[in-house]
Amino acid sequence: MTIRLSSVTKLYGSHAALNDVSLSVETGDFFVVLGPSGCGKSTLLRAIAGLEPLDGGDIHLGDAHVAGRHLHVAPEARNVGVVFQSYALWPHMSVKQNVAFPLATARRARSYVEARTNACLETVELTAYAGRKPSDLSGGQRQRVALARCLAQGAQTVLMDEPLANLDPHLRTAMEEELAEFHAKSGATTLFITHDQREAMALASKVALMWDGKILQADTPQQLYDRPVNAKVAGFIGRSTLLSCDIAKVRGEKVLIMLAGEAFEVPCVGGMGEGPARVMVRPEHVRISGEGRSLMTVLERVTYRGGYFEAHARITGNGQSVLCNLPHNAAPGDVLPIALDGGWVLPG
Ligand code: ADP
In the predicted model, what is the mean pLDDT of residues 37-43? Predict the structure, then answer.
């Protein structure tokens, strides 16, 4: 089921937790909303679930108009499953009873409840744990019970609010794989929120980067990383440096930029003009160069990052500093010739 928001606004006093948010989630997407704490992610999820009335805009779930002017469809009538950060399992019930609960309260036939519950427990590989109480499970297993319960409801749309945030790092990675599998098996349209970009990149078919109540960019993880729409997105996703440069020549979706008197070819959006610009340079775009077009740099700071050294290299020709990776240790003050292999000229 698709999820469509158009110009959704949610106010808390004078603060807009959601400020004119529009987004489209397609059927079967694993759509991740990524952003720093307090940017409005939970509010967005709660608005879709029907837990927050809107102050403006519309929400459609599939063909159903569920929120808009004088319209607020109750959460239970929206057919969305929600998995929260806290597992919200009933402690006195067994794993199986927890999973069966929404079906049983929906007054489904007993044989149906039994079959469906067993199938969902099988999906999350908890059949052997069906009789246990939540207190006798690990964090990851509890999260799987919550997922199975969500699956049992048969919701075609699943909303997840940082479901892995409380897990140990090693368990998180394992659960990420399970979530991806869960998504592939259930085919449910999934909207997942997190502040962890690594998690977002690993899981998402599409990522929306949210900032201060607004969506800055909604794209595939690769587009977000390779082609950020502005400096904020570039700064939030991965490691990079923004350098001031001059566009000397435009060649379609590539430009020739001048940096400290040297020319480099860098990708960009079409339709850019000549003149001052900013280029995003990631460490993998910086080549340590002995020959050809080189920029002389002096290392300022070198940090071991496990497997490689991260260095801040100051370009002697213009005083700008660029982040690069070195395979070997080096000392501040060392001279290093570099060249640019790629990058991204920021639009606008
Ligand atoms: P996130 O999930 O990205 O951490 P939230 O959606 O929880 O962000 O919050 C967005 C903004 O709205 C924050 O500034 C938060 O303080 C504010 N906020 C959230 N819920 C309420 C509430 N019930 N009353 C007042 N302000 C709220």
Answer: 95
* b/e sequence 42-72, b meaning 16+ C-beta within 10 Å: bbbbbbbbbebebebbbbbbeeeebbbeeee
**Measured from the CA of 195, which atom of ligand 1 is nearest?**
3
pTM listed for this prediction: 0.89
With tokens 């850019």, the residue in question is 272
Is 157 exposed, middle or buried (CB count within 10 Å of its CB: 0-12, 13-18, 19+)? buried
Ligand 1 contact, 19 CB (< 6 A): no
194 in contact with ligand 1, CB cutoff 6 A: no
Q: Which of 8, 15, 160 to mutate to test the pocket of ligand 1 (most atoms within 8 A of CB)?
A: 15
Q: Which CATH architecture has domain 239-345?
A: Beta Barrel (2.40)
Nearest CA to ligand 1 atom 20: 43
Q: Which CATH superfamily is domain 3-232 in?
A: P-loop containing nucleotide triphosphate hydrolases (3.40.50.300)
How sure is the predictor about 87, in pLDDT bands with cuts at 50, 70 and 90? low
- Asked whether 17 lines ligand 1 (CB < 6 A), one says yes
Would you state the pLDDT for residue 86? 66
